Amino acid sequence: MTSTTIPGLSLVLILGMRHGLDPDHLAAIDGLTLRTQATNPRWAPWAGACFALGHGLVVLCLACAASLMPKFVKPSAAFFSAMEWIPIVLLFALGILNARALMQKNGYRPLGLRAGMLPGWVGKLSGPAAAFLVGMVFASVFDTALQAAAWGYAATLIGGTVAALLTGLTFSAGMVGTDLLDGWVTARVLRSGHVDAIAVFRRRLGWPIVLMCFSMSAYGLVGKLDPAMQVSEAWLSGLGGAMLAAMALIYGYSAHAARIR
Questions:
Q1: CA distance 14 to 240
Q2: Residue 69 within any structural domain of the chain
Q3: Residue 1 lies in a domain
Q4: What is the distance between the alpha carbons of residues 168 and 147, in angstroms, rounded to a whole number?
Q5: Secondary structure of residue 154 in the 3-state scheme
Q6: What b/e string do you get for 96-107 counting C-beta neighbours within 10 Å, with b at 16 or more?
Q7: Number of domains forming the structure of the chain
């Protein structure tokens, strides 16, 4: 994950793109796009990109700050081992939460874990500057902050501060790309004029995201229990790219369907 080789960076890019599909991100982008569509329609398609830019800026700052840690402190191997458990547990919890929501008859909206930890005013903001701010606040929640710091620290041990900066930039670029696409398609679906269009769009994305959450959680668990079961970075990059290509097809179909409506 922290290698600065081409396969290593491609995997970091894939992880950033997958992070952009986090249900918390999708729920936040839904709300921001909807509110911005009502107050400033011109900026509505860019709500996802502004959110991701704010999020990525904090991730980048945390990774760079963590690159200075080796000068003052050297966390134990147990610390990094604990950090690896956080995404495994959270991805599994997100998969369960969203699978349950998808099986309900009511309209589905992506469910996340971070939204409940944030102050109420965050869910009432609109506009590009507000989306940027909300993205920054989301990145400050414990799991994202801890993972960014851990990756930055580990990257520094391999290639110094430049490696930490490159890792943070690559991860953020993948996340911005995904959230830009999501915000753009969400705005297009909203403009179709159908009341239930967003619910249909999110349900179409819901099961693939649940599958992605469970798959990545299971792979992480197997790798922790038996490191010999881990595959190479190149294989992981290829599998991740295939999953994201499938998601891009769903986005493309949704945008096309909204245009027809």
A1: 6
A2: yes
A3: no
A4: 11
A5: helix
A6: ebbbebbeeeee
A7: 1
123 CB-contact burial (10 Å; exposed 0-12 / middle 13-18 / buried 19+): middle
- Using CA atoms of 205, 207, 209, 211 in order, give the dihedral in degrees to the nearest 10: -150
Largest CA distance in the chain: 59
CA 201 vs CA 32, 102, 166, 188, 223: distances in Å: 16, 12, 34, 11, 34
Cα gap 101→252, rounded to integer Å: 24
**Model confidence, pTM:** 0.81
Instruction: Encode pLDDT of 171-216 as tens digits.
Output: 888 889 999 999 999 888 888 766 577 778 888 888 888 988 898 8
How far is the C-alpha of 21 from the C-alpha of 160, rounded, in Å? 29
SS3 content of the chain, % helix, strand, coil (to 5): 85, 0, 15
- Residue range of the domain that includes 51: 6-260
Cα 50 to Cα 128: distance, rounded to the nearest angstrom: 6
Burial of 6 (0-12, 13-18, 19+ CB in 10 A): exposed
CA–CA gap between residue 20 and residue 25 (Å, rounded) = 6
Averaged pLDDT score across all residues of the chain: 79
Q: What is the DSSP secondary structure assignment for residue 183, as one 8-state letter?
A: H
In a domain, 254, yes or no: yes
Q: Using the predicted structure, report yes or no on whether residue 71 has a pLDDT greater than 70.
A: no
Residue closest to 204 by CA, chosen among 171, 147, 142, 253: 253
13 contacts 176 by C-beta, under 8 angstroms: no
- What's the confidence (pLDDT) of residue 7? 47
Q: What's the pLDDT band for 46 if we cut at 50, 70, 90? A: very high
Round to whole Å and give the CA distance between 258 and 7: 36
Looking at the domain assignment, is residue 123 inside a domain? yes
Q: Is the pLDDT assigned to residue 108 strictly greater than 90? A: no
